[in-house]
């Protein structure tokens, strides 16, 4: 074993009892009768994580993701197998985990630091940066039992990423919190990654995994289904998720020529967590022929002085949400206006290669290379393609025929 985290053939199983009394009856039964059912949460996981890796962990609820992270952090012990950790771990597993609800936020910062092996003097040096990052104001000196889930997330993240860990484990922490907080967290995680910190990142937002992580692991029913390059594993996982739910594909889709959430005057929202919004999306028409030109105008507003790394993405789907194509301005190195005000960009497909059918467009505003979503409009525009019969399938591919004999 030579990685910063080495896991060999880990199994974690639980005994499930129908009634609390069954546990006692099993313990005293003279013939060792079983009153439990065994549930295997992880079944033979083997994984090696190298120093500096950012690994996304994917899987449906109940697949074993959180169990694996708890084994790595030592919260749980394996039923069998070996885990070797070569570094200091900082983890955000569940909101409130590791916090004493009767202590204030400040006292819990010291408590968590001491649990990681730091002296009080060392934590005195770090507490200013932690409090600034958490940004929860006077609540830092209130008992954490009165905190909202967002405050818990802010404080937990602030502590975890400001104690210089060798390994940072984040389990769905970014699901709680506004876009501003997510941006700050991602920026800090990027900084840690650039310094060689190993990151294990669990998120149901698979695009975050694709864009932030260099590797990914997909866990299915307690086993590793796939591992490797993050983009490839995410594509496999999304394909599985898409086609394992085909029974929901008969939803009625309402066609729209354009979508608008328009403001006559530019007004900055009173909610400071709203950084940018899509205010209008228009398409040049809603009935096309194959090879027609498609023009989509996206109007958006920026409420910050500037949003570094702002990008627009346009995604094309079928009505049953099969993903066809999804470029964005960051990937194509197009810089869009990112300063306060109202702006408009145009997305053009010069020659639409799709064949007959109904199609939908999603439009999103993101920053941080697409990791943090600022605003997203699903099925914001729909359109039809109709043709006289000249080919079959979903997309027209340029081709030629040759007579060889």
TrEMBL record:
Pfam families, sorted: ABC_tran (PF00005), Wzt_C (PF14524)
Keyword line: ATP-binding, Nucleotide-binding, Translocase, Transport
ABC transporter domain ranges (all copies): 5-246
InterPro entries named among the record's database cross-references: AAA+_ATPase, ABC_transporter-like_ATP-bd, ABC_transporter-like_CS, ABC_transpr_TagH-like, Bact_Polysacc_Export_ATP-bd, P-loop_NTPase, Wzt_C
GO molecular function terms listed in the Swiss-Prot or TrEMBL record: ATP binding
Xref: SUPFAM superfamilies: P-loop containing nucleoside triphosphate hydrolases (SSF52540)
PANTHER family: TEICHOIC ACIDS EXPORT ATP-BINDING PROTEIN TAGH
Family according to the record: Belongs to the ABC transporter superfamily.
Name this protein carries in UniProt: Teichoic acid ABC transporter ATP-binding protein
Protein species of origin: Paenibacillus odorifer
